[in-house]
Amino acid sequence: MSNIFQKLTCRKWVLACLVLLLAGAAFKSFYDQPSPFEDYRLNGKCFRIPAGYVVTYIASNKPGGEDYLGMISKWPDLSPNSYQFYHPDPTSHGPFEDRGVITISIFSNSPGNVSGQALLDRNVEIGGIKNLNNPVKDKLGFNEYYGIINTLYEKEINNIKKVVSCSPTLNGHLKSTCEYKFPLFVQDENKYLYEDMIDIETGPQHLKDMFEVGEAVRAKVLSWMRC
């Protein structure tokens, strides 16, 4: 009887240990899963951003310091696409042109947080616009200014100058990427410099609808803002 009791007790201990091991494995598996969201803070504002967007985050951790958040998305659904950053396609002629990739950057308290007018003025100061007094009107309604490297495409909307800067390809004849800077908050549109700014960069195929893309990006970013 004593031996039988000991065997039963031993089996209970073994069973209990197995249960604990399995429970521990399940607990570890659950908490090892990547979080569906990540929290970021820029200039006192907090954002809860779904996984798969962010590739760079630099925080100054001091009031008034320069903060930066870099993300990669895809048009038109603005789905996360940081995978593109870590696994570039060697057969692609360029992710911006071929894949509809959009880089989204948020800058706070940066010297580069300039409005369209400020961007034009800075180029004028360095003598970087060749046809300042004779812009070319293109078929999309932009005034084209030829800079030292980039071409600036300016259009006035609601009395606000908006400027897209496009860089040439290596052969110097075609646009390769286009960049558009605008404030995080729409009420800051009439400011010369921005405290918080969104900078998007994408392929030249979006020059025609760059401002609409910008509005969609702004709405997406603000939907992540929690404080």
Describe this structure in words.
- There is one protein chain.
- This protein is of the alpha+beta class and 227 residues long.
- It has 2 domains: 33 residues; 187 residues, no CATH class.
- The protein has 5 helices and 12 strands.
- The N terminus is likely disordered.
- Keywords: Signal.
Number of domains: 2
Termini separation = 69 Å
- Unreliable stretches covering 5 or more consecutive residues: 1-10, 12-32
Largest sheet: 10 strands, antiparallel
Helix amount, in percent? 25-40%
- Radius of gyration (Å): 26 Å
Mean pLDDT over the residues: 82
Structural class: alpha+beta
Keywords:
single chain, alpha+beta, 10-stranded antiparallel β-sheet, two-stranded antiparallel sheet, 27% helix
Question: What is this structure's SSE topology?
Answer:
Layout: H1 2-31, E1 37-42, E2 45-50, E3 54-58, E4 67-74, E5 79-80, H2 83-86, H3 95-98, E6 101-108, H4 116-125, E7 136-137, E8 143-146, E9 151-157, E10 160-168, E11 175-183, E12 196-202, H5 210-223
Antiparallel strand pairs: 1-2, 3-4, 4-5, 4-6, 6-12, 7-8, 8-9, 9-10, 10-11, 11-12
